[in-house]
Amino acid sequence: xxxxxxxxxxxxxxxxxxxxxxxxxxxxxxxxxxxxxxxxxxxxxxxxxxxxxxxxxxxxxxxxxxxxxxxxxxxxxxxxxxxxxxxxxxxxxxxxxxxxxxxxxxxxxxxxxxxxxxxxx
Length: 121
Prior knowledge:
InterPro entries: BlaI_family, WH-like_DNA-bd_sf, WH_DNA-bd_sf. By secondary structure, the protein is mainly alpha-helical.
C-alpha cells in the first residue's frame, strides 16, 4: 500500500470523519469548501480508492455510497508496516521511531508490548 496522494488523503479524511456511507456529491461538497474541484475528479479519486481496496461501495439508486474498509488508525498501522517492510534493518528503524516518542507515548507502547507478551501464542 503506497502513501496516499493529497486529494486521496482529503477524501479518506472526510470518509473517516463521517462514520457512515457517503456519496461522491456529499464528498465534493465537503472538499470544495477548501478548493475548487470537479465532480468527475472526486468521482475518479473515490473509484481509484475503491480499486485500491481502501473503500467499499454500494449502489444506491444511480449513485454509489462509499465507506472506508479500515479505520484511520488501522490504515496508519498498515502504512507503518509497509514502510518497515521496505527497511533493510527493521529493528533499527523501529528503534529510531521509539527514540522519537515522547514519554507518554513510550509508556503506552511499553504497556501494549507487555500485554502482547502475555497473550498465549
